[in-house]
Protein backbone atom coordinates (compact mmCIF):
# COMPACT_ATOMS: atom_id res chain seq x y z
CA UNK A 1 0.00 0.00 0.00
CA UNK A 2 1.10 3.54 -0.54
CA UNK A 3 2.63 5.71 2.12
CA UNK A 4 1.28 8.89 0.61
CA UNK A 5 3.73 11.63 -0.15
CA UNK A 6 6.51 9.14 -0.89
CA UNK A 7 6.34 6.72 -3.80
CA UNK A 8 5.12 3.31 -2.84
CA UNK A 9 8.10 1.12 -1.93
CA UNK A 10 8.61 -1.67 -4.44
CA UNK A 11 7.96 -5.21 -3.33
CA UNK A 12 5.07 -7.42 -2.28
CA UNK A 13 3.69 -9.93 0.18
CA UNK A 14 3.58 -13.56 -0.96
CA UNK A 15 1.55 -16.63 -0.08
CA UNK A 16 4.31 -19.19 -0.71
CA UNK A 17 8.04 -19.68 -1.24
CA UNK A 18 7.67 -20.22 -4.98
CA UNK A 19 6.13 -16.78 -5.43
CA UNK A 20 8.84 -15.22 -3.25
CA UNK A 21 11.61 -16.87 -5.27
CA UNK A 22 10.08 -15.82 -8.58
CA UNK A 23 10.07 -12.20 -7.38
CA UNK A 24 13.75 -12.46 -6.41
CA UNK A 25 14.68 -13.90 -9.80
CA UNK A 26 12.74 -11.14 -11.57
CA UNK A 27 14.41 -8.40 -9.51
CA UNK A 28 17.95 -9.61 -10.26
CA UNK A 29 20.73 -7.40 -8.90
CA UNK A 30 21.82 -8.04 -5.32
CA UNK A 31 19.76 -10.36 -3.16
CA UNK A 32 19.60 -10.33 0.65
CA UNK A 33 17.55 -12.99 2.44
CA UNK A 34 16.86 -13.21 6.17
CA UNK A 35 15.85 -16.86 6.41
CA UNK A 36 14.09 -18.02 9.58
CA UNK A 37 11.74 -20.65 8.19
CA UNK A 38 14.11 -23.29 6.82
CA UNK A 39 17.75 -23.29 5.78
CA UNK A 40 19.69 -20.88 3.60
CA UNK A 41 20.73 -23.84 1.43
CA UNK A 42 17.10 -24.72 0.72
CA UNK A 43 16.28 -21.08 0.02
CA UNK A 44 19.19 -20.73 -2.40
CA UNK A 45 18.05 -23.83 -4.30
CA UNK A 46 14.51 -22.47 -4.48
CA UNK A 47 15.74 -19.20 -5.99
CA UNK A 48 18.04 -21.02 -8.43
CA UNK A 49 15.14 -23.12 -9.70
CA UNK A 50 12.76 -20.16 -10.05
CA UNK A 51 14.21 -18.80 -13.31
CA UNK A 52 17.18 -19.24 -15.66
CA UNK A 53 18.81 -16.05 -14.36
CA UNK A 54 19.92 -15.76 -10.73
CA UNK A 55 20.74 -12.64 -8.69
CA UNK A 56 24.23 -11.31 -9.42
CA UNK A 57 25.17 -11.57 -5.73
CA UNK A 58 23.43 -13.13 -2.75
CA UNK A 59 23.85 -12.38 0.96
CA UNK A 60 22.00 -15.16 2.80
CA UNK A 61 21.46 -14.83 6.55
CA UNK A 62 20.22 -17.66 8.76
CA UNK A 63 18.03 -16.23 11.54
CA UNK A 64 17.85 -18.81 14.32
CA UNK A 65 17.15 -18.90 18.05
CA UNK A 66 20.00 -21.40 18.57
CA UNK A 67 22.79 -20.43 16.18
CA UNK A 68 26.14 -22.16 16.71
CA UNK A 69 29.71 -22.17 15.46
CA UNK A 70 30.70 -19.00 13.65
CA UNK A 71 27.33 -17.35 14.12
CA UNK A 72 27.15 -13.86 15.48
CA UNK A 73 25.45 -13.42 18.84
CA UNK A 74 23.05 -10.52 19.13
CA UNK A 75 23.38 -10.07 22.87
CA UNK A 76 24.47 -6.63 23.89
CA UNK A 77 23.49 -4.72 20.77
CA UNK A 78 23.17 -4.87 17.02
CA UNK A 79 25.21 -7.77 15.58
CA UNK A 80 27.78 -7.39 12.86
CA UNK A 81 26.47 -7.85 9.32
CA UNK A 82 29.77 -9.28 8.08
CA UNK A 83 29.32 -12.61 6.33
CA UNK A 84 31.54 -15.38 4.95
CA UNK A 85 32.06 -15.54 1.17
CA UNK A 86 31.63 -19.07 -0.19
CA UNK A 87 32.09 -18.42 -3.91
CA UNK A 88 29.87 -17.68 -6.91
CA UNK A 89 28.93 -14.31 -5.44
CA UNK A 90 27.35 -15.87 -2.36
CA UNK A 91 27.94 -14.67 1.20
CA UNK A 92 26.61 -16.62 4.19
CA UNK A 93 25.92 -15.28 7.67
CA UNK A 94 23.99 -16.29 10.76
CA UNK A 95 22.33 -14.23 13.45
CA UNK A 96 20.56 -15.10 16.65
CA UNK A 97 16.85 -14.42 16.84
CA UNK A 98 15.28 -12.19 17.86
CA UNK A 99 17.52 -9.40 16.56
CA UNK A 100 17.72 -6.55 19.11
CA UNK A 101 17.75 -3.84 16.42
CA UNK A 102 16.37 -5.45 13.25
CA UNK A 103 16.18 -2.20 11.30
CA UNK A 104 19.83 -1.33 12.02
CA UNK A 105 20.84 -4.89 11.19
CA UNK A 106 19.08 -4.77 7.81
CA UNK A 107 20.67 -1.40 7.08
CA UNK A 108 24.15 -2.74 7.88
CA UNK A 109 23.56 -5.91 5.88
CA UNK A 110 22.37 -3.96 2.85
CA UNK A 111 25.31 -1.58 3.15
CA UNK A 112 27.70 -4.53 2.97
CA UNK A 113 25.79 -6.41 0.28
CA UNK A 114 24.75 -3.57 -2.02
CA UNK A 115 27.58 -1.09 -1.51
CA UNK A 116 27.73 1.24 -4.50
CA UNK A 117 25.79 -1.16 -6.74
CA UNK A 118 23.05 0.72 -8.58
CA UNK A 119 21.42 -2.28 -10.25
CA UNK A 120 18.74 -2.79 -7.61
CA UNK A 121 17.86 -6.13 -6.11
CA UNK A 122 15.71 -7.62 -3.40
CA UNK A 123 15.33 -8.31 0.30
CA UNK A 124 13.33 -11.34 1.42
CA UNK A 125 11.85 -11.92 4.87
CA UNK A 126 10.42 -15.43 5.00
CA UNK A 127 9.12 -14.90 8.56
CA UNK A 128 8.92 -11.19 9.49
CA UNK A 129 7.96 -11.98 13.07
CA UNK A 130 11.23 -13.80 13.70
CA UNK A 131 13.06 -10.47 13.55
CA UNK A 132 11.08 -8.80 16.32
CA UNK A 133 12.62 -8.37 19.77
CA UNK A 134 10.39 -8.48 22.83
CA UNK A 135 8.57 -5.22 23.40
CA UNK A 136 9.08 -3.86 19.89
CA UNK A 137 6.15 -2.25 18.13
CA UNK A 138 5.63 -4.53 15.13
CA UNK A 139 3.98 -1.89 12.96
CA UNK A 140 6.81 0.58 13.48
CA UNK A 141 9.49 -2.04 12.82
CA UNK A 142 7.71 -3.17 9.65
CA UNK A 143 7.45 0.40 8.36
CA UNK A 144 11.13 1.05 9.07
CA UNK A 145 12.22 -2.17 7.33
CA UNK A 146 10.34 -1.11 4.19
CA UNK A 147 11.90 2.36 4.38
CA UNK A 148 15.44 0.99 4.73
CA UNK A 149 15.04 -1.37 1.77
CA UNK A 150 13.65 1.46 -0.33
CA UNK A 151 16.56 3.74 0.62
CA UNK A 152 18.96 1.21 -0.93
CA UNK A 153 16.86 0.94 -4.06
CA UNK A 154 15.93 -2.71 -3.52
CA UNK A 155 12.54 -4.39 -3.42
CA UNK A 156 11.28 -5.87 -0.17
CA UNK A 157 9.36 -9.14 -0.40
CA UNK A 158 7.93 -11.01 2.57
CA UNK A 159 5.95 -14.15 3.20
CA UNK A 160 2.51 -14.01 4.77
CA UNK A 161 3.84 -15.71 7.90
CA UNK A 162 4.87 -15.03 11.46
CA UNK A 163 3.68 -12.18 13.67
CA UNK A 164 0.31 -10.73 12.66
CA UNK A 165 1.24 -7.26 13.89
CA UNK A 166 4.30 -7.24 11.65
CA UNK A 167 2.19 -8.43 8.72
CA UNK A 168 -0.31 -5.65 9.35
CA UNK A 169 2.52 -3.11 9.30
CA UNK A 170 3.99 -4.51 6.09
CA UNK A 171 0.58 -4.68 4.42
CA UNK A 172 0.18 -0.92 4.85
CA UNK A 173 3.09 -0.45 2.45
CA UNK A 174 3.27 -3.52 0.23
CA UNK A 175 0.60 -5.07 -2.01
CA UNK A 176 -0.18 -8.74 -2.23
CA UNK A 177 1.65 -10.35 -5.12
CA UNK A 178 -1.54 -12.00 -6.38
CA UNK A 179 -5.01 -13.11 -5.33
CA UNK A 180 -3.62 -15.98 -3.28
CA UNK A 181 -1.53 -13.56 -1.23
CA UNK A 182 -4.50 -11.23 -0.73
CA UNK A 183 -6.60 -14.12 0.56
CA UNK A 184 -3.83 -15.44 2.81
CA UNK A 185 -3.30 -11.97 4.26
CA UNK A 186 -7.01 -11.44 4.89
CA UNK A 187 -7.30 -14.86 6.54
CA UNK A 188 -4.52 -13.86 8.96
CA UNK A 189 -5.38 -10.23 9.64
CA UNK A 190 -9.16 -10.31 9.98
CA UNK A 191 -8.95 -12.57 13.09
CA UNK A 192 -6.07 -10.37 14.31
CA UNK A 193 -8.31 -7.30 14.03
CA UNK A 194 -11.13 -9.12 15.79
CA UNK A 195 -8.84 -9.92 18.72
CA UNK A 196 -7.01 -6.59 19.00
CA UNK A 197 -9.74 -4.11 18.03
CA UNK A 198 -13.18 -5.72 18.42
CA UNK A 199 -15.01 -2.39 18.07
CA UNK A 200 -13.63 -1.57 14.65
CA UNK A 201 -13.95 -5.22 13.66
CA UNK A 202 -17.67 -4.94 14.37
CA UNK A 203 -17.96 -1.91 12.12
CA UNK A 204 -15.98 -3.69 9.41
CA UNK A 205 -18.27 -6.71 9.58
CA UNK A 206 -21.34 -4.48 9.21
CA UNK A 207 -20.13 -1.90 6.71
CA UNK A 208 -17.35 -3.38 4.56
CA UNK A 209 -19.52 -3.50 1.44
CA UNK A 210 -20.57 0.11 1.92
CA UNK A 211 -16.94 1.14 2.46
CA UNK A 212 -15.99 -0.60 -0.78
CA UNK A 213 -18.71 1.28 -2.69
CA UNK A 214 -17.68 4.60 -1.19
CA UNK A 215 -14.00 4.09 -2.00
CA UNK A 216 -14.94 3.23 -5.58
CA UNK A 217 -17.30 6.19 -5.99
CA UNK A 218 -15.36 8.99 -4.29
CA UNK A 219 -13.75 11.33 -6.82
CA UNK A 220 -10.64 12.13 -4.78
CA UNK A 221 -7.19 10.61 -4.44
CA UNK A 222 -6.72 11.37 -0.73
CA UNK A 223 -10.22 11.57 0.79
CA UNK A 224 -11.22 11.74 4.42
CA UNK A 225 -13.88 9.40 5.74
CA UNK A 226 -16.59 12.08 5.57
CA UNK A 227 -15.83 12.58 1.87
CA UNK A 228 -16.03 8.84 1.23
CA UNK A 229 -19.32 8.83 3.11
CA UNK A 230 -20.66 11.74 1.04
CA UNK A 231 -20.08 9.71 -2.13
CA UNK A 232 -22.64 7.12 -1.01
CA UNK A 233 -26.20 7.69 -2.29
CA UNK A 234 -28.14 6.17 0.64
CA UNK A 235 -25.69 5.10 3.35
CA UNK A 236 -26.55 2.92 6.30
CA UNK A 237 -23.36 4.04 8.05
CA UNK A 238 -22.59 7.43 9.54
CA UNK A 239 -19.37 9.34 8.82
CA UNK A 240 -18.09 8.13 12.20
CA UNK A 241 -18.91 4.45 11.73
CA UNK A 242 -17.66 4.50 8.15
CA UNK A 243 -14.44 6.09 9.43
CA UNK A 244 -14.04 3.22 11.89
CA UNK A 245 -14.58 0.76 9.03
CA UNK A 246 -11.92 2.48 6.92
CA UNK A 247 -9.47 2.36 9.83
CA UNK A 248 -10.16 -1.36 10.09
CA UNK A 249 -9.37 -1.75 6.39
CA UNK A 250 -6.02 -0.07 7.04
CA UNK A 251 -5.24 -2.56 9.81
CA UNK A 252 -5.96 -5.53 7.56
CA UNK A 253 -3.86 -4.12 4.72
CA UNK A 254 -6.63 -3.25 2.27
CA UNK A 255 -6.25 0.54 2.41
CA UNK A 256 -3.40 3.01 2.70
CA UNK A 257 -3.13 6.24 4.69
CA UNK A 258 -1.73 9.45 3.25
CA UNK A 259 1.27 10.66 5.25
CA UNK A 260 1.26 11.32 8.99
CA UNK A 261 -1.28 13.78 10.30
CA UNK A 262 -2.76 14.69 13.67
CA UNK A 263 -6.05 15.55 11.96
CA UNK A 264 -8.55 13.09 10.52
CA UNK A 265 -6.97 10.41 8.35
CA UNK A 266 -6.69 10.98 4.64
CA UNK A 267 -6.87 7.66 2.84
CA UNK A 268 -4.50 7.00 -0.03
CA UNK A 269 -6.30 5.58 -3.06
CA UNK A 270 -3.34 5.68 -5.45
CA UNK A 271 -2.76 1.96 -4.90
CA UNK A 272 -6.29 1.02 -3.87
CA UNK A 273 -7.45 -2.36 -5.16
CA UNK A 274 -11.11 -3.34 -4.56
CA UNK A 275 -10.09 -7.00 -4.85
CA UNK A 276 -8.25 -6.69 -1.52
CA UNK A 277 -11.43 -5.43 0.14
CA UNK A 278 -13.30 -8.35 -1.43
CA UNK A 279 -10.76 -10.76 0.08
CA UNK A 280 -11.25 -9.10 3.47
CA UNK A 281 -15.02 -9.33 3.10
CA UNK A 282 -14.82 -13.03 2.28
CA UNK A 283 -12.65 -13.60 5.36
CA UNK A 284 -15.13 -11.68 7.52
CA UNK A 285 -18.09 -13.65 6.19
CA UNK A 286 -16.27 -16.94 6.77
CA UNK A 287 -15.77 -16.29 10.50
CA UNK A 288 -17.90 -18.15 13.01
CA UNK A 289 -19.89 -15.93 15.37
Question: How does this model look, in words?
Answer:
The protein is 43% helix and 15% strand. The protein is an alpha/beta fold and 289 residues long. The strands form two sheets. A seven-stranded mixed sheet has the order 1-7-6-2-3-5-4, sandwiched between helices. A two-stranded antiparallel sheet has the order 8-9. The longest helix is centred in the last third of the chain and has 20 residues, at 198-217. The two termini are 30 Å apart.
List keywords for this structure.
9 strands; two-stranded antiparallel ribbon; 2 domains; Arc Repressor Mutant, subunit A; Rossmann fold; elongated; alpha/beta; disordered N terminus; 289 residues
Query: What is the total domain count?
Result: 2
Give the biggest sheet.
Answer: 7 strands, mixed
Percentage of residues assigned to helices? 40-55%
**Strand line-up across the major sheet:** 1-7-6-2-3-5-4
Write a brief structural summary.
The protein is of the alpha/beta class. Helix content is 43%, strand content 15%.
SSE layout and pairing:
Elements: E1 11-14, H1 17-27, E2 30-35, H2 40-48, E3 57-64, E4 84-87, E5 90-96, H3 102-114, E6 121-125, H4 138-151, E7 155-159, H5 164-171, H6 179-196, H7 198-217, H8 225-230, H9 239-251, E8 256-257, E9 267-268, H10 274-286
Parallel strand pairs: 1-7, 2-3, 2-6, 3-5, 6-7
Antiparallel strand pairs: 4-5, 8-9
Helix pairs in contact: 1-2, 3-4, 4-5, 5-6, 6-7, 6-10, 7-9, 7-10
Amino acid sequence: MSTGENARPAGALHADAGSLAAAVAAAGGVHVALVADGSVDDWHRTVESAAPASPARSHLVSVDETVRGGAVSTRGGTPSATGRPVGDGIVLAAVEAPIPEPVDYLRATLSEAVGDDADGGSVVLDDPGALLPDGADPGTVATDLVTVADSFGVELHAAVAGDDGALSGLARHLPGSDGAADRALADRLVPYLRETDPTNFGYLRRHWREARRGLTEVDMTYPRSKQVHAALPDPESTPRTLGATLRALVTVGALGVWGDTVAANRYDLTGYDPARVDAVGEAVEALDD
